[in-house]
Structures are given as C-alpha cells and as structure tokens.
C-alpha cells in the first residue's frame, strides 16, 4: 500500500484511459425508461472512475506520510510514517469542476491544546 | 454442481410475468445464492440478454433488501438465514430451484424479482419511532429496566423489514413486522409514552396498505430470517386493545 510519485502518476494516466474507454465503449443491457439495475451499476462505476483518479491526485499532492497515507519518499529511518506538519496541516477539500479537474480548497488545521507528535510504538 | 433454475421474469408492473428456465453450470458450493445470480447474470449479459433484476445491498444478512422466494420458502431452506447468506452447499448437484419474488398485493412486482416494499416505510412513518429531543446519549444504566423486557425488546428490534413474513403468510399479513416494531418500543420507557397512538396509527396504516389479517398460522415466525417470535403479535394485540379502551 506504499505510494510514490511514480506509481501514482502511472495510476492517474491508467484511470484516465479506462474512463475514456468506459464512456466510449460501455454496453448497458436493458432500456432507460424502466427500472434498470445495470444502468444503476454503470452510474456507480462512472463515479468510481472519477473518484479513483481524485484519490490518486490527492495522494500525489500530499508529499508526506500521514495515517493510512504512506508516501515511500517520506519515512523515518526505521520505516515509520514521517509527517510534514509545516506544509500539510490542512484538510484537502476538492471541488469538482469536471471529470479529471478539481480545485483544491485547503481547510487549515490549527491545534491549540494538544499538538501532533511523532507516532511511536516503541 | 450443475443446477436448473426456474426464475420469475417480469418486464414491469404492467406486463404479465412467467417462469423462465436457466441451466447454471459449475456452481461452487461455497457461493452464496446471490453470487450464483451474479454469475448467471454475467452469462446473460455476454449473450446479449437482459440480466435478472433482484434486490440486494449489504449481502451480510442485516439490511433486509434481498428477497427471493426459493423453492417455496422465503429466503430459501435454511433456518434464520437471509437469501444473501444462503450458500449453494445447501443444494445438491442436479437440483431444480424455483425462484420467485415476494407475493403480496401490498408488494407489487416492479421487475423480475424486485417488489415495491414502500408500504413498510409508510407503516413505520406512521408511528414506528419515538418523538424525543436527542442531545447527548445518556448512560444506558440510568433507567433500570427488567432484563426480560430488555431482552424481548432487543429480539423484536432484530427485525430487518425484509417482508418475508408477509410473503410467507397465506393472508399476506404484516402483523409480525408491525408487532415487532410496536413491541420493541412499547417494552421500553422511552417508547411507552406514545404507545397508544403508535399502535393505533401503525395498525391503521397497515390495514390501509392492503395487508391481510392474522389467523395465527405461524408461517411468518417459521420463515423469518431473524427468528422474530409470534409472541410479538400477541403483545401487539394487547396493546391495540388497551389503546382502544383508553380512547
């Protein structure tokens, strides 16, 4: 589950290609004017093909390791997650513009009483 | 295992439906009934035929969506088991399995195996809740409750609203479903406050939806995937009588 610059960039282009193929080539049995469970499924897949790319884009932007998001380029000498609180103390809220294009809004995280420290299980 | 499935196909609510035979080969005994349907549907799609429409959601036995009448039993032959948790090892190689939707006037067929169960939603909106301003959750031990009441309420609350009881009942009665909700709430202090209006409203809505009357057959309890007891029906009958006397 380790992410790095290269595999994330590759994933984004692969997802874009799948999405293009989907919209060009998908076959949905049944008709559109009545209950169509396959159409429902196709709608979900279409959403996932956008969400998947966004998840990779977000991971690519966040050049630190934090929680479940592990960037191989950002780790302590003994392989633990290394955060970059100076640059990434925010929630990334992405605004949908069109498929493949989102605008980043940063919601800053400010810790007054309890401050983030390095996680250690030792 | 190789099986022969006879599945109800119906294009929409207006057209007549019928049973269509589908041979299904190489079914793994570890597959769930719905997984087998997924495999069959994939084959149909490859052949450019329309796949079978059926309700499903959690596939874990808790949401109440899956609703197939399998070989004349709601959710199939296994006791206390929903369709999604029914595995093919319960059947033998060479078996013929007949699959139909829930049959009840109050549950009109929408397509193939999908029926419209919004009647249940309307019954719940008519009174299957408590009206209270929620704030912070109180400590659960603040109000001492007899263990029997708590246990019975919890057992009644296990109802997932699938409608198997209605389908299994020869009268299409919804008494087990309605009484499970009425019981769950009437047994606890928070629910006692509105118990009279609740039972009167829910029974009235139940009748308006066109469900049948209860004649104490017990098929509902036998088929219920959550093993809800008919004792709840007895309890609701008492609630209903008391509510009418107090009017």
Order of helices and strands of chain A: HHHEE
Q: Got a strand count of chain A?
A: 2
Distance between the termini of chain B: 60 Å
Helix % of chain A is 40-55%
Name the beta content range of chain A: 5-15%
**What is the rounded distance between the termini of chain A?**
23 Å
Q: Low-confidence parts of chain B, pLDDT < 50 over ≥5 residues?
A: none
Q: Can you say what the CATH homologous superfamily of the largest domain in chain B is?
A: Alpha-helical ferredoxin
Counted by DSSP, the helix tally of chain B is: 9
Concise overview:
The complex is a heterodimer of chains A (122) and B (247). With 122 residues, chain A is α+β, with helices and mostly antiparallel strands. Chain A has helices at residues 5-25, 37-61, 85-88, and strands at 90-98, 101-108.
Describe the structure.
The complex is a heterodimer of chains A (122) and B (247). Chain A has a single domain, classed as Methane Monooxygenase Hydroxylase, Chain G, domain 1 (Up-down Bundle), CATH 1.20.58. Chain A is built from 3 helices and 2 strands, in the order αααββ. Chain A has helices at 5-25, 37-61, 85-88, and strands at 90-98, 101-108. The longest helix of chain A is centred in the middle third of the chain and has 25 residues, at 37-61. Chain A starts with a helix and ends in a 14-residue tail after the last strand. Chain B has 247 residues and is of the alpha+beta class. Chain B has 2 domains: 3-100, Ubiquitin-like (UB roll); 118-246, Alpha-helical ferredoxin (Fumarate Reductase Iron-sulfur Protein, Chain B, domain 2, Orthogonal Bundle), CATH 1.10.1060. Chain B has helices at 33-46, 118-125, 147-157, 164-168, 175-186, 189-192, 195-209, 219-223, 231-246; strands spanning 3-9, 18-24, 69-70, 73-74, 96-100, 109-111, 114-115. In chain B, helix 2 runs antiparallel to helix 7 (195-209), helix 3 (147-157) packs antiparallel against helix 5 (175-186) and helix 5 crosses helix 9. The longest helix of chain B is centred in the last third of the chain and has 16 residues, at 231-246. The radius of gyration of chain B is 20 Å and the shape is elongated. The chains are: A alpha+beta (122), B alpha+beta (247). Chain A binds chain B through residues 29-30, 34-35, 37-38, and chain B through 11-12, 44-45, 48-51, 53-54, 110-111, 114.
